[in-house]
Write a structure and sequence with these properties.
The protein is α+β, with helices and mostly antiparallel strands and 99 residues long. The protein contains 2 helices and 6 strands, in the order H-E-E-E-E-E-E-H. It has a 6-stranded mixed sheet, with helices on one face. The longest helix has 10 residues.
Length: 99
């Protein structure tokens, strides 16, 4: 997929309908706030986008599922996970794992 929007639209058709946000030691989907801890979700796939002329345009789109909570959602992180103040457990859970 060429753009972040194309990627999001494709993931929506695959059932990733929740917009997830990153907090210190959990993911959440807004109101009512559902806290998804680092051991309660799986990164099903991810897409990295790099700005051709500006490194600040870098972003990673994560397709995330949580069997415990029965949801699938999308987390967009611009600038990389290292730029956010998050707990070590969340950092490890969001690492790019090689198959």
């Amino acid at each position: 997929m060429d753009t972040i929007l194309d990627t999001i639209n494709q993931l929506r058709t695959e059932g990733y309908v929740h917009d997830l946000k990153l907090a210190w030691n959990y993911l959440h989907q807004g109101i009512p706030e559902l806290k998804i801890l680092h051991d309660e979700f799986v990164i099903d796939k991810f897409y990295r986008f790099e700005g051709e002329s500006d490194p600040d345009e870098e972003a990673t789109v994560y397709a995330i599922s949580s069997p415990k909570h029965g949801i699938k959602g999308i987390l967009i992180n611009s600038g990389g996970i290292y730029s956010d103040a998050i707990a070590d457990e969340m950092l490890a859970a969001l690492q790019m794992k090689k198959p």
